[in-house]
Specification:
Strand order of the largest sheet of chain C: 3-2-4-5-6
Protein name (chain C): Bifunctional protein PyrR
CATH class of chain C: Alpha Beta
Radius of gyration of chain B: 19 Å
CATH architecture of the largest domain in chain B: 3-Layer(aba) Sandwich
Radius of gyration of chain C: 16 Å
Largest interface: A-B, 23 and 28 residues
Domain Phosphoribosyltransferase (chain C): 5-145
CATH superfamily of the largest domain in chain B: Aspartate/ornithine carbamoyltransferase
Order of helices and strands of chain C: EHEHEEHEEEHE
Strand content of chain C: 25-35%
Oligomer: heterotrimer
Strand content of chain B: 5-15%
Shape of chain B: globular
Number of helices of chain B: 11
Distance between the termini of chain B: 9 Å
Function (chain C): Also displays a weak uracil phosphoribosyltransferase activity which is not physiologically significant.
Structural class of chain B: alpha/beta
Structural class of chain C: alpha/beta
Family (chain C): Belongs to the purine/pyrimidine phosphoribosyltransferase family. PyrR subfamily.
EC number (chain C): 2.4.2.9
Number of helices of chain C: 4
Helix content of chain C: 25-40%
Largest sheet of chain C: 5 strands, parallel
CATH class of the largest domain in chain B: Alpha Beta
Order of helices and strands of chain B: HEHEHEHEHEHEEHEHHEHH
Number of domains of chain C: 1
Chain lengths: 446, 315, 179
């Protein structure tokens, strides 16, 4: 397929209206009814929802260093399968993405993949060690244009270091994405602290360990006039604190993962390590609270925290298993189930929380405007009426540690266009050589 | 019975049935020849990732008295300590034809993982997993209490209406966790007693009351006082100021011993820290069941192995 | 399913009385006799036989029960059996003439298990076997010394012994099985 023009015929837009979408040379050139094909490849989008390509602010691509879990290529394939066109790659690779050279390398790996744009996140501290600031400025002015910095996996727990990081990134409109976990309150923690953890004899991860850090960080952010992003908010108390901070005018944004919108800590009763994640699955009340927070805008976005692990890190006793779940392939369906089917938000909100807002928080140039003429042709076509038994065959990455295997999830990604190049068509990933050729053609013409 | 992973799964009838079989086993242990041919040809593997000589030899004696072949597989000095996974170990045991695996593991839930994994077909007995459960300890405790209460006419009976005070480090105790469910199934009431740092905060729905005051608990005249071992590693982790203060507030010393009702029994799963959670006089008094608990442990474990390994397989 | 009654209440009493006489005769009196029933119904029968023997001889004959569950060779072929208590009279078994009592003698495997169990408890001078019904089909070289009734049967048939103390009625019936 060398044609770089597409006409998505009769798609339903997020506002409920119907339109054709014309894609030429990587950009959206028209949105309206009865558009002329002009030789473009026509894609029948009747009955399908067209959303702006999804943007994930929190992906672990594992390369370099942990290629047995995921590579940039396999991770971006998983992204495309889930309707994502941009992923922010977390810094906890090996070596850690803490220099300009390393973030540029990550960017290049993404360009070579072509399935999705890879926007590196830089480490806050060298080696994620929590001791010295990494070269934040060099990463910001590198070709990777890093604006978001995170030690995710670890909390920047030292309050002075956190203050300095927040202050420093003001120089280039950066933000610190904090993994909020007070380390001393979570020594040996295995799952949400509550009745279930008590019964299972698994060391608890108390909500207060997250809330205490968020409370501290929003106050620091206010004090130094900077910008804070809170990763994977998981507790009702965290939502309250963020709501309070926003009401005070503090520049804080927050994300929730799909799994924290749907799953609860009682799943640990099976001791099945697929349900082990950090922060842990919480109580039903917490799930209610993060859903409400997402619905009322307290929580800005959904981010997957896609965290692939090879089987041997999950096929073991719970306390010995690794934390994390893959989430790119299932995210849209989970948000569909947890937020749309429950009537809490509309599809236009989904476009906001899974595409527009994360692009803005991550300061992606020229993005975050949704499906508009002149914007980059990142589009996902989603069949909202489909439902599927989610299985290993639903996964496109390298690892199978999904908590949804065996569950029924609504919806199905039918097509994904990344920079105007189809990465998924008819529900199937396109071959890599074809995607690469398509991206080359777009780059040449653009 | 396919596996014994937790006492929480045991109904009252199932629990009484195990205790009754344990009575039968105990009876055979008074004979001239104590070995029974029952499990001839069966292989029981003691898979111990944590050192516990007491529990291991108790299971070993139980299996041997039932004529099972016993293989002891301890982690120390084996491939397990060199990082071999639970999965590979399980598959090895499967190939060796293990009919039952008695597992002691430092990780809570490891026996569940083994039972649910499909790596091995054997029946799994939890011999203590992390801070989760230790079901055979609870069974031998209940058996011991029932015998003290009802003597030779114990069969068929529960522990209805009695109060058991479990005293000490509840938070980390697999013995306390297994006891609370079993005691509740048998009709007994449990009171957890200890410093607030060592009694779990989240006990919603648990069949247990909580007290931070051992003297008040004793004044309420419990039928059983079960003292738990204080692990030395807790002493340096701010759970309580020091051993002296712990012993003064939550130890069963001679003075508290004297205040117990004459027929209140004193239990301890062992090994004891004499002078810390229990005084020597309390441990050695006639009301103490510490030594009976050891003998009863063999009978209870014989019952469990019998129920696990005889009969057609239920899946 | 057709059920045919082969022994009624009075027949059972008569059979047990005859067995009691035969035991005394073969033992030349009540000396050193110990009567052990095999649970469940064998225990009830043993008590009755012991009472009869005591009445006839004027000497109290010790009676007990011997559970053989733990000695069976078919444990993994059947659902798990709950063991029953064993109670051995205070005099013990050494030097005694033990009369084992069971309700139905069939393959002989229960008796084989009983002999093993006895061996672990003591060393009787002799072991005899009494059965209310002998239905044949032996799989081991075992034969009864005292029989209430020989009842030739097909392997597909089932013999039911019902006793007042256990079942609330008293009869032996033969039923066509295979249902």
């Amino acid at each position: 397929m060398t044609n770089s023009s597409f006409l998505l015929r009769g798609a339903t837009l997020a506002d409920g209206s119907t339109a054709d979408i014309a894609i030429v040379d990587g950009g959206i050139t028209g949105i309206g009814s009865g558009l002329d094909a002009f030789g473009a490849t026509v894609v029948d989008a009747a009955g399908l929802l067209a959303l702006p390509g999804l943007v994930d602010l929190h992906t672990h691509l594992r390369e370099p260093g942990f290629e047995d879990s995921e590579t940039v290529l396999t991770g971006t394939r998983a992204a495309a399968a889930g309707g994502f066109t941009t992923v922010f790659a977390m810094a906890n690779t090996s070596p850690v993405a803490d220099t300009a050279g390393l973030v540029e390398q990550e960017l290049a790996l993404g360009e070579a993949s072509g399935y999705a744009t890879v926007q590196p996140i830089g480490a806050v501290t060298t080696g994620l060690a929590g001791e010295r600031l990494a070269e934040l400025g060099a990463m910001a002015s590198s070709r990777a244009r890093v604006r978001l910095f995170s030690d995710d996996g670890f909390c920047v727990s030292d309050p002075l270091l956190m203050r300095r990081a927040l202050e420093y990134v003001k120089a280039f409109d950066g933000a610190i994405a904090q993994h909020a976990q007070e380390p001393r309150l979570t020594v040996g923690a295995q799952m949400n602290e509550g009745e279930v953890s008590t019964r299972l004899g698994l060391t608890g991860w108390p909500a207060v360990a997250e809330e205490a850090i968020i409370a501290r960080d929003v106050l620091l952010t206010e004090h130094v006039g900077s910008r804070l992003h809170v990763c994977h908010v998981s507790t009702a108390g965290s939502v309250d604190i963020i709501r309070w901070a926003k009401a005070r005018g503090i520049a804080v944004t927050a994300e929730v993962t799909p799994h924290h919108l749907l799953l609860t800590d009682d799943l640990a009763e099976s001791y099945d390590a697929r349900f082990k994640v950090n922060p842990p699955l919480r109580s039903a009340e917490d799930v209610e609270a993060v859903r409400a927070g997402l619905a009322d805008g307290t929580i800005d976005i959904v981010a997957t925290d896609h965290a692939p692990h090879p089987d041997q890190h999950k096929d073991c006793a719970w306390p010995e298993a690794a934390n994390g779940m893959v989430g790119l392939e299932s995210a849209l369906s989970v948000v569909h189930a947890a937020m749309v089917d429950t009537g809490l938000i509309e599809w236009s909100d989904v476009a906001r929380v899974l595409s527009e807002a994360p692009a803005r928080i991550g300061r992606l140039e020229g993005m975050g405007t949704g499906l508009t003429i002149g914007s980059r042709a990142d589009v996902v076509l989603y069949d909202t009426r489909a439902a599927r038994a989610f299985g290993v065959e639903s996964l496109a990455g390298k690892s199978a540690n999904s908590p949804y295997l065996g569950r029924r999830l609504p919806g199905r990604v039918v097509a994904t266009f990344h920079r105007g190049v189809p990465t998924v068509l008819d529900g199937r990933l396109r071959p890599h050589d074809e995607v690469v050729a398509g991206q080359k053609a777009v780059t040449a013409r653009g | 019975m396919r596996h014994l992973l937790s006492t929480r799964d045991l109904s009252r009838d199932a629990a009484i049935h195990i205790l009754d079989v344990a009575e039968d086993m105990a009876q055979t242990q008074t004979r001239e020849v104590r070995k029974l041919p029952t499990l001839r040809g069966k292989t029981v593997v003691n898979l111990f990732f944590e050192d516990s000589t007491r529990t291991r030899i108790s299971f070993e004696a139980a299996a041997k008295r039932l004529s099972a072949d016993v293989i002891n597989f301890s982690a120390k000095g084996s491939s397990v300590s060199k990082g071999e996974s639970l999965k590979d170990t399980a598959q090895t045991l499967e190939e060796m034809g293990a009919d039952a695996v008695v597992i002691r593991h430092g990780a809570s839930g490891a026996p569940h993982t083994l039972a649910a994994s499909g790596w091995i077909d054997a029946g799994i007995v939890n011999a203590g997993d992390g801070t989760h459960e230790h079901p055979t300890q609870a069974l031998l405790d209940a058996f011991t209490i029932r015998r003290r209460l009802h003597g030779d006419v114990s069969r068929g009976r529960g522990l209805d209406g009695i109060t058991v005070a479990i005293v000490g480090d509840i938070l980390h105790s697999r013995v306390a966790r297994s006891n609370v469910w079993l005691l509740s199934a048998l009709g007994a009431r449990t009171v957890f007693v200890g410093p607030p740092t060592l009694v779990p905060t989240h006990l919603d729905g648990w069949p247990a009351d909580v007290s931070y005051d051992l003297d008040a608990t004793i004044a309420a005249s419990p039928d059983v006082v079960m003292m738990l071992r204080i692990q030395t590693e807790r002493m340096n982790d701010a759970y309580f100021p020091n051993p002296r203060e712990y012993a003064r507030r939550w130890g069963l010393d001679d003075e508290r011993l004297a205040r117990l009702r004459p027929d209140t029994i004193v239990m301890h799963p062992g090994p004891m820290n004499r002078g810390l959670e229990i005084s020597s006089r309390a441990a050695d008094s006639p009301r103490s069941t510490v030594r009976e608990q050891v003998a009863n442990g063999v009978s209870a474990r014989m019952a469990v192995l019998y129920l696990l390994l005889s009969g057609e397989r239920e899946d | 399913m057709s059920a045919r009654t082969v022994l009624q209440h009075a027949d059972i009493s008569r059979a047990l009385t005859r067995i009691a006489h035969e035991i005394l005769e073969s033992n030349r009196g009540p000396d050193a006799l110990v009567i052990l029933g095999i649970p469940t119904r064998g225990v009830v029968l043993a008590r009755r036989v012991a009472t009869l023997v005591s009445e006839i001889s004027g000497v109290d004959v010790p009676v007990g029960s011997l559970d053989v569950t733990m000695y069976r060779d078919d444990l993994s072929r059947n659902p798990t059996r709950a063991p029953a208590p064993t109670s051995i009279p205070a005099r013990g078994l050494d030097g005694a003439t033990v009369v084992l009592v069971d309700d139905v003698l069939y393959s002989g495997r229960t008796i084989r298990a009983a002999l093993d169990a006895l061996g672990d408890i003591g060393r009787p001078r002799a072991v005899r076997l009494a059965a209310l019904v002998d239905r044949g089909h032996r799989e081991l070289p075992i034969r009864p010394d005292f029989v209430g009734k020989n009842l030739p049967s097909a392997p597909s048939e089932r013999i039911y012994v019902r006793l007042e103390d256990v079942d609330g009625e008293e009869s032996v019936t033969i039923e066509q099985g295979g249902a």
